[in-house]
Amino acid sequence: MQYYNEIKNQLINNEINRKVKNYAINKSDLETYYNVGKLLSDAGKHYGEGIIKEYSKRLMKEVNKKYSERSLRRMRQFFIRFNNLKWSPLASTLSYSHFIELLSINDDIELYYYIDISINGCLTRKQLREKIKSKEYERLPKEAKEKLKKQEKLELKEIIPNPIIIKKSNNYENISENILQRIIMEDIPSF
């Protein structure tokens, strides 16, 4: 019961703070969801994993329907994944939605890469999702990844891998794998 009341108070305070200002909202969201994640993590140690389901049902009735079991699990994941990340300076540029997109990344170097390009490129959540989906980090040259491991700054030419440009020699409307293979074979030196 003690954890539930603390979680409920955190979320109610957040609901009030959300109505003040955008910057304050983002900072409040990050702090609140981080703290709720910590409380859920601690509560799970004492009462078991079913506690999230129970708390979710009660919070959806008493506070807001958006506090579903899924959203509470994400808050706990957020705390666990970003527990040792110094995210307070990021609060002004990355939203909770950005952090949710980053939850799927397990490698710390890859995580910092996406955080860095999100901040420097002022990426929206949707743009960040596309970069993660396209596995941009995996397409980086080995030299660039080594620099990231050493925490060195990357040059622009190292960040964006060179695209493969295919010149349509035969006016194909749809390019199948066979047609693509023929185009590549015709122009091997450029690849």
How would you describe this structure to a colleague?
The protein is an all-alpha fold. The chain has ten helices and no strands. Helix 1 (2-17) packs antiparallel against helix 2 (22-47).
Supply the key terms:
mainly alpha; 62% helix
Low-confidence stretches: none
State mean pLDDT (0 to 100 scale): 80
* H/E topology pattern: HHHHHHHHHH
Morphology = elongated
Q: How far is the N terminus from the C terminus?
A: 64 Å
Tally the helices. 10
How large a portion of the residues is in β-strands, by DSSP E? under 5%
Number of strands: 0
Name the quaternary structure.
Answer: single chain
In terms of structural class, how would the helical and strand content be classed?
A: mainly alpha
**Main β-sheet description:** none
In short:
By secondary structure, this protein is mainly alpha-helical. It contains 10 helices and no strands.
Give the helices and strands, then pairings:
Layout: H1 2-17, H2 22-47, H3 51-62, H4 69-82, H5 96-102, H6 108-120, H7 125-133, H8 142-149, H9 156-159, H10 177-186
Helix pairs in contact: 1-2, 2-4, 5-7
